[in-house]
Amino acid sequence: MDDSIKLLEKIMDICAYRQKILASNIANADTPKYKAKDLNFQEELKRAVETDEQSYKIIEASTTMPNRDENTVNIEVEMTKVAETMLMYNTATQLISTKIRMIKSAVKGGS
Predict the structure, then answer these.
(1) Phi and psi at residue 38, in whole multiples of 5°?
(2) Which of 25, 61, 91, 104 is most exposed, with minimal Cβ within 10 Å?
(3) Do 67 and 32 touch, CB atoms closer than 8 A?
(4) Within a 13 Å sphere around the CA of 44, how many CA atoms are in the beta-carbon half?
């Protein structure tokens, strides 16, 4: 398989996992003392490429300030991260589709 397709698959896997983390943060927006979580996308992609590992390191999100109940979820920040992650996922799927279309075209002789 082409290395670019493998890389795009890893990007999609990391994006899907990050979406789960962000959904959990949003679901716990009213939970007292809940700490927002995230992952460092660039570090996880680098590690996935170098080691072919499928587990991810979850970190405490550093950009949020705790509110009165010590919850660090900021809905606006989380929604921005969701949109960013979804955009990255959609871009990766479009690139894979284009790559597969090009391979099919080459197999058919360019028709």
Answers:
(1) -165, -175
(2) 104
(3) no
(4) 19
Residue position matching structure tokens 């996880």: 44
**Backbone phi, psi, residue 59, to 5°:** -120, 160
Instruction: Read off the pTM.
Output: 0.86
Question: How many Å apart are CA 64 and CA 73, to the nearest integer?
Answer: 6
| H or E element in which residue 28 lies | none
Model confidence over 12-46: pLDDT tens digits?
A: 999 999 999 999 999 999 999 999 999 999 999 88
What residue type is assigned to position 73 of the chain? V
| 30 three-state secondary structure | coil
Q: Which two tokens stand for residue 102?
A: 């090009």
